[in-house]
Every structure is written in C-alpha cells, then in structure tokens.
Amino acid sequence: MPSRRADLDWLRIGLFGLLIVHHIGMFYVANWGWHAKSQYRAEWLESILLIVEPWRMPAIWLISGIAIRFVLAKVSLSRYVSIRSLRLLLPLLFGVLVVVPPQLFVEMSAKGEIDISYWAFLQAFFQTDHPIFANYNWGIWPNIDVNHLWYLRSLWYYSMSLVFLLPILNSKPFVGAMNWLVQRHGAIVVLSLIVPVFLIEFFWEFSSSRYPIGFYCLTLGYLLGWHPLAWGKIRNHLKGLGLAYLVALGLLLAGYNLFWIDKMQGAPVGLEVELFVEGIYSAARVLGLFLVLSFASNFFRAKTQYLGYFNDAVYPFYILHQSVILVVGYQLTQLNLGFAAESFMLVLLTIGVCFLFFEVIRRVDLIRPLFGLKMQGNYRPGVRQLGYICGACMVTPLALKLVL
Q: Which helix (H) or strand (E) is 11 found in, with range?
C-alpha cells in the first residue's frame, strides 16, 4: 500500500471549495430551484456552473472510495464499520438538529409562509405535527431533513453497502477483469465507464439519479485504489483528457442553452435531443473526473504545512457553509446592494464566517467529533472507551432510522 497521496488531499480540498462556490451560485441562478434566491438572478451564470457541475460530485465520490480502500487495508471490518459510523453519523445528527434548521427558516420566510422569530420557529420545528410544516415532507424525522448533508447520509449508506460487495470486488475474476480493462486503450476505458453513467442518467429519475451515480463512482474509486497502471495512464494523458473535455463541454453548453433551458421551462424536446444532451453530460462527467485526477496528479503532489490545516477544514466548512450562505444571503438581498456588491459580500462573509467557526471547532476537543474531526487530547483508555460508548448511544437511533 502506498503512502497517503497529497494530490488527492489537495483535490479533495479543492472539490469541497467548488461545492461552496456552487451553492453560492445557486443563490443567483435563474432556472435552478433552491431553498431561497437573491432578487438578482442570472441565466448566464448557469453556463459558468456547468463547467464543473458534471464532475464535481463524481470526483468527491471517487476520492471517498479511494479513502475507503486505504482504511480497509489498515483495520478490521468490525472496526471499519464502527469508526465509519461514528465519523459520519455524529456530524449528520448534529447537522440535522442544529445546522440545517436555519435553512428551512430562511426558505419558509423567503416564501412568505412564516413571519415569526427563529426561537418561535425552533419551538414549532421540534414538534412532530405542527401545522406550519404541513406542506413539507418528512426527512429523517418530522420536519427534519438532511438538505446539503445528503452526502454524509449517502456516504454512510455506501460505506456499509460496500462491506457486502467486498467478496465480489476482491475476487480474482473481478480483479482480473479490472486489470484487463485498464490495459486497454484509454479511449476504450473511458467509453466503457461512460456507458453505465449514461444508462443511469437516461433511465433513472432525474431528482434521484445522483445516488446511483455516487455509488458507482465510489465503487470505482475503491477499485482504482492504488492501481499503478491506472494511475500511470491518468497521469500521462492530461492533454488528451483536457481536449476531450473541452469538446464535450462545448457541446454540453450548446445543448443546454439551445434546448435544455426550454425543456426546464416546459417546452417539449425530441427524444434525439434528450439522448444527445444526456450522452454529452455523461461523457463530461467521466472525462472531467479523470481530467481533474490527472491535473492534481501532475501539479499538486507537494506536502506543505497548510495541507493538514485545510484537510481538517473540509468537513466543518462543508457542514456549515450552506446555512451560512442562506442566512447571510437572505439578509443581504434585502439591502438592495446590486448584483456585484451583494455577491462579493456573500462570498466574503461565507468564507469569513466559516473560518471563524472552524478556528473555534478545531480548538475545542468536545466539538471536533461533531464536525468529523478526531479528538486531539491524550485521554486515558477508559475515558476514550466511554467516549466511544456515548457516541454509539447517540448515533444508534439515527442509524436504525436510516436503515429501517
């Protein structure tokens, strides 16, 4: 097993940074629905976001699969299940109870459905049958949904599901088939990986297709792991991947602006148009995914003093950012600052507020596990064991709810 790869760490940091940029953009795009919107909306911004939209989450899922491969090489399956559950479900539980509610408050306030204080909202929020939430579906519990934390929920599902697939994924026939595929021409490899993505995109319900795509990419990451030939090909084909992605992106932007915007607004489009746009989008997903892997592998291999700091910041920023965007953005857009000033202030304040919270989180040991970070204190074995027991008691009801 190779040592920890700095290029994947840097790429993970960059991808979650793009996630924050994407959600800030969602506050301003004209045709994509979100919890709340600025009074200033732009259709052209959708084309900007589409540059990274196809491959942003697939790349995160693939890196998650690679990380699982590294973890499973070091620990037993039972320890993997327990560690994975605590590291993912504890932040998810804290997130849905504390971090996510402000998002629903802003959404309902922006729609004019409520005109109450946040304290009054919270009192209603934790009631199971309050009438103000009649138009909102259940999430995990009444009124309580995951919102942007769906990644943590899905990552736990996929992490547990992968355990049952290990006998197949690690079998000699499957490993042999994977090795055979990797040895083919790069175009054949890429095309063979695009086909399943296209089938999911075309036949799966659009609103939920991100889940099978995520599991597919996570499994692919597990299979790639530290496969030397695969990574050699990825590293050496940067130019080819870049040119192919530029072509796919140009076709995607053309198809989106010429046909897909009209489709979202209710205009009928032919089957051939849907096949074309879905096919190009699927190709952009895979090509963009391997392009950013190649780019990181070639240019971001240095381990600097900042790598550990930003690595620790990923989960706190991810957990907090969407609530910060919505709360701050909802207040800013009522000040009539104009698009440029408002968007600049929203970016600046989102980053600044998240950094302030992170500086507190990383210094307080009891808070760190709530944001997916290890505790740093040198505690006695009995104290550590008590901590694991308390954590397990806290997340068990959530785990049962997610499973049942």
A: helix 6-26
